[in-house]
Amino acid sequence: MNILTPFFRGVGGRRRWWRWLAGGALAAVAALVLAWFLLPFPRERLARYPAATLLLDRDGAPLRLRLGPNDTDCRLRYQPDDDRDWIAKAVVAAEDQRFWRHHGVDPLALGRAVGQNLRGRRVVSGASTITTQVVRLVQPRRRTLATKAVELFRALQLERILDKPAILEQYLNRTPFGANLVGVEAASRRYFGKAPGDLSLAEAALLAGLPQSPSRLRPDRFPARARQRQAYVLDRMLACGFITAAQRAAAAAQPVVLRKDAYPFRAPHFCDLLLDERPQRQGQGRDAAVVRTTLDPALQRLAEEILRRRVEALHPENVFGGAVVILEVKTGAVRALVGAPDYRDAAHAGQVNGAAAPRSAGSTLKPFAYALAMDQGRITPASLLADVPRTFRDYAPVNFDGEFNGPVTARAALVRSLNIPALTLVEQEGVGEFLGVLQRLGLGTLKKSAAEYGLGLAIGNGPVRLLDLANAYACLARGGEWRPYRLCEATIGPESNKAAGTGAGRGAGTGAGPYIFSPAAAWLVAEMLSGEERAGDTTGHHADVRLPRVAWKTGTSSGFRDAWSVAFNPEYVVAVWLGNPDGRAAPALVGAKAAVPVMWEIVRGLYPANDAPWFTPPPGVVRRAVCAVSGAPPCPQCAATVEDWCIAGVSSARPCDLHRLQPVADPRTGGTRMAVVEAWPPELAAFLRARTAPVAAMEHRAGGGVPRLISPAPGAVYRKLDDFAADQRLPLKGECAGGGLLYWFVDNQLVAAVPPAESASWPLVRGRHTVVCCTPAGRAATAEIRVE
Fold first, then answer.
1. In 3-state terms, what secondary structure has residue 63?
2. Parallel, antiparallel, or unpaired for β 488-492 and 572-579?
3. Which is nearest to 664 in space by CA: 649, 656, 648, 675?
């Protein structure tokens, strides 16, 4: 007797059976509905891949591919076009021919698989659809019957939240294709060196066959197996009506040539830096990204070639390292970054990124001390500063050349990078205040206290990174506004809604930032560090006077370990460091001799037509008359004045106190008379007394002491030779009875103050010029000259 017989005995038994059957069905439907709402599809997983990070230059060309977890090469994202791309048609034909018609589960395939498996009493075939495979790829599970049920349930849910093209895109970007390749983009690039949309029918059919058994069918290892599977895919495409018989025959006859695409490896130090600042998240499911960086390929090639050639020329002098940063002022975008002349030079630590390594700053921080002093109203470009021997507690610094210059203008002190004036300014500002400014400029490697650095911070006893230094100078070029540097233009993929345009952890995008200096102070520093007369400092002669106008500063660390040069204009900052990664010293490591030629060659490359822009004076910068000697607003006793820039309402309006009217002895009468004297500060008076006759109370006789010009002669015409290999300078020579200093001016700019027995010089600059030789009493001789 059958076990079910009692249930079919009589009407009552049959009714009970149907009630139980209906109840079970209702319970199953209720459970399914409940699960549908209580266990929604985990949509967040659809945006997460075990993906690589692909870095592109600003033009979209690959720079570097960082593999994903477990060295997975998964590149995002390829969006298939079913109407034009062979790969989409080939995958559907091979994996799920009724993909466009079913709702995640194919009943026909499911019924066929159940029947075959029951008849064979083993798993003969499956009923997987592309949708169920996406579920499996998104949430891998152990292969059991329960897992199959879960996958069918999730496939139905997935079809409700994504349309068919989106599901196909998920599959193509997740399925394995052999080796470490995940996704059709990675497979197409690695096997054929082209995008999936550019694959031929034969190539697409070969790739579409790989997911069935990626390791066994790899075309680079098992070409015969791969071609056999390709033939199957072509047959399925023909059966589905996706191709004609002629297309199938042509594709089968086409030889498939693998063109293995090497991983890109360009701008290595730039990419290393970006990947370090954008750390990879560990484990499966890291957000995928294609990052378009700020790197300009043309500027990168320019910087790489110039640095490599210049450093090779310095190899005989034991200089093997160097770095270059080109930064766009307006946006803060890093357009070029070279960390070493040769990344693969292991003998000289080529993988050390010189653009990101902290090195002693030398004199490169001095412009910021001058800008701060100008914003505090204490100096203007013509202000008189003292470059005389001084001891700061137990510190007795000297200049690079070991000499002192006595009274100098602030502009001359900055251009010539004199140490005593810079130290004095920082002493007046306060080391803590100066250090705070440097830290707000982004020089994050200055981590010690102000007491630990001391005044030596002004002349380079703190470490900085070349990239941070370039960005600090960009603050000056931007009119005092600081912004973070940027390494990324955009991120493509799930991370694109984040702050992708910034360097990692360094602030927000390209919006306005804080003002560290006033626009006026920043402009004045740029003016002080530029000008045609500085061209001679570039190469030692003036043949290159017609160079693009930039403001520039050099630096040399103590012990000749680091040579620096930084140039800027309204468009770019060009920063150069030369040295050895291991810190080895070399006599050639002088900023003006080693780094400046690299900087100028890059600037010429940026502006081959010599059409560099320049800054417009900002509001608040005005011209005023100042004493020709002290640089302060003139008092009634000042005999000569010149024009100088100042910041209206900020720069000190205190009149000159160097010139005074006081009684002096009159040797002719034996009595006293009123006369103008120069009351130099004690340190300058002592310095000048040691070099010349006493000047602390110099008398200026009203009836004598008229200077006479010896050179130049009035009306003289000079010719500057472009191919002249030496420094062309005009000698300034005069004589004057009565002693005292002679002050030499060219075009209202103080050039020198020397005793009559000594001569000065001025570098030739083409054009018409006015040369004035003046005594402290205001007696002057003038010559108009022309330089052709």
1. strand
2. unpaired
3. 675
Q: Are strands 780-787 and 767-774 parallel, antiparallel or unpaired?
A: antiparallel
Least Cα distance to 661 among 687, 699, 632 occurs for 699
Q: Tell me which residue of 174, 203, 175 sits closest to 191, measured CA to CA.
A: 203
H or E segment to which residue 249 belongs: helix 245-253
564: its two tokens? 């620096």
Contact between 172 and 183 under an 8 Å Cβ cutoff? The reply is yes
Residue 123: predicted pLDDT: 46
Asked if residue 264 lies in contact with residue 57, where contact means CB atoms within 8 angstroms, the answer is no
The residue to which tokens 């010690």 are assigned:
448
Report DSSP letters for 518-584, one per residue.
-HHHHHHHHHHT--GGGGHHHHSSSTT-SPPP-EEEEEE-TTS-EEEEEEE-SSEEEEEEEE-TT--
- Over residues 364-414, the pLDDT tens digits come to 999 999 999 999 999 999 999 999 988 887 678 888 878 888 899 999 999
What are residue 333's DSSP bridge partners? 486
Residue corresponding to tokens 């150069």 = 576
Rg (the chain; Cα; Å)? 39
| 365, β-bridge pairs | none
Query: How many C-beta atoms surround the C-beta of residue 499 within 10 A?
Result: 14
Q: What element of type H or E holds 73?
A: strand 73-74
| Residues 6+ positions from 409 with CB-CB distance below 8 Å | 381, 382, 383, 384, 385, 631, 750
* Whole-prediction pTM: 0.77
**DSSP class per residue in 327-374:** EETTT-BEEEEE--S-TT-GGGTTTS-TTTS-EE-TTTTHHHHHHHHH
Residue with tokens 């001095």: 366
Q: What is the DSSP letter of 456?
A: G
Q: Which residue has the higher pLDDT, 16 or 338?
A: 338
